[in-house]
Amino acid sequence: MKRFHANKFVRTFLLLALTLALAMSLSGFAFADEAAAAAPDINQGLGLIAAAVAMGISAIGSGIAVGAGAPAAIGALTEDPKSFGKALIFVALGEGIALYGMLVAILIWTKV
Fold first, then answer.
1. Half-sphere exposure of 73 (CA within 13 A, CB side)
2. What is the CATH number of the domain that holds 69?
3. How far apart are CA 35 and CA 86, in angstroms?
4. What confidence tens digit (pLDDT) does each residue in 86-102 have?
5. Could you report how far apart the first and last alpha carbons of the chain are, in Å?
6. Which among 1, 12, 21, 74 is least buried, having the fewest CB atoms inside 10 angstroms?
7. Structural domain tally of the chain?
């Protein structure tokens, strides 16, 4: 059984938070030319952050689900080759999480 390494989790979380903070702080340079024409709306920025968070969290969740499901599916296939269909469904469900997150991000992005 795997042990939960809190130190590794904290480092990963801090790296993700630092990356998000850096991206948010540098995003003002992308709108520098448009700033003279019209001031950017706060809702547009929050919408883009919401789309990024929806895609990012769903991708992380999908990676965790596939990371746990795929080795179990491979182990089940080595014992019983007839379980291929069931194993494929469980792995595909994990992949579906990322697709739903991407769909939500696209819907948010088109509304911004």
1. 17
2. 1.20.20.10
3. 54
4. 888 888 888 898 999 99
5. 45
6. 1
7. 1
